[in-house]
From TrEMBL:
Cellular component annotations (GO), alphabetically ordered: cytoplasm
Primary location recorded for the protein, binned into one broad class: cytoplasm
A molecular function (GO) term: protein-L-isoaspartate (D-aspartate) O-methyltransferase activity
Gene Ontology BP term (one): methylation
Protein name, as recorded: Protein-L-isoaspartate O-methyltransferase
Top EC class for this record: transferase
């Protein structure tokens, strides 16, 4: 994966650097919308990494309690959020599959539930129970104590997400999270060997999904899946990537 050399000494500096550096095609910058920049500045990456001394480096970092999971590099999160940005309006419903550290859920929350505006819903789902608990602790440290709800579907919990809340779910993300559906935007943070139909079904009309598809350690592409107002689905390959796999929970 490409290193962008836009690391910073603080969260603010990291995000400022991401917003001035050219994209791979040299046409735009990685981060361009003011709303996304503001949301990324509100989520401080140091709360979501095991080694805060390198929190503002533009690289992935291994995270605990996962099956080889990493928090993605900031430029990858920026790319993903920019591609979904028009669907992340105040009041929108969002699903983040493979939520890992919880970092991206915080950014999504700031976009769909900004202060003083209509409140949206963010559902994060990951299949490692201890990792989901850790992500909840991270979100609380990052100022989202009263907004975060933990749901463990492996213990039979099923909670309907509430407006303005971040619902962090332990469960199999390939099945989505029907109590929160339909979703205006779905982000998938691990590569699906084949396109999961359950996630397409849970996408709202006029919704968009950003999903890496392909074998773990093989040729993968980010696919942007759009559902139009009549429920018709179109798919577009955005770029080649290397994500860990979306798979069965290790025994
Ligand atoms: N986007 C997150 C983590 C990405 S790593 C971050 O930046 O912090 C990919 C995550 O997908 C891991 O946390 C892993 O536990 C999770 N994962 C893999 N298979 C899964 C499945 N079937 N259901 C839910 N989560 C899964």
């Amino acid at each position: 994966m490409r290193e962008w050399g836009c690391s910073g000494r603080s969260n603010e500096e990291l995000i400022n650097n991401l917003s001035t550096l050219r994209d791979m095609d040299g046409i735009g910058t990685i981060l361009s919308s003011e709303r996304v920049i503001a949301a990324m500045k509100k989520a401080d990456r140091k709360h979501y990494v095991p080694d805060p001394s390198s929190a503002y480096e533009d690289r992935p970092q291994p995270i605990p309690y996962g099956d080889g999971a990493t928090i993605s590099a900031p430029h990858m999160h920026a790319h993903a959020v920019e591609h979904l940005a028009e669907k992340l309006q105040p009041g929108a419903r969002v699903l983040d599959v493979g939520s890992g550290s919880g970092y991206l859920c915080a950014v999504l929350h700031h976009l769909v539930s900004p202060d003083g505006e209509k409140k949206g819903k963010v559902v994060g789902i990951d299949h490692m129970p201890r990792l989901v608990q850790w992500s909840v602790e991270n979100l609380k440290k990052d100022g989202l104590k009263n907004d975060t709800v933990f749901v463990d579907t492996t213990k039979g919990d099923e909670v309907s997400p509430a407006d303005g809340k971040l619902t962090m779910v332990c469960g199999d993300g390939r099945q989505g999270y029907p109590p929160g559906a339909p979703y205006d935007a779905i982000h998938v943070g691990a590569a699906a060997p084949t396109m999961p139909q359950a996630l397409i079904d849970q996408l709202a009309n006029d919704g968009r999904m950003f999903i890496p598809v392909g074998p773990e350690y093989g040729l993968q592409h980010i696919v942007q899946v759009d559902k139009n107002g009549r429920g018709e689905v179109t798919k577009r390959n955005l770029m080649g990537v290397a994500y860990v796999g979306l798979k069965d929970r290790p025994a």
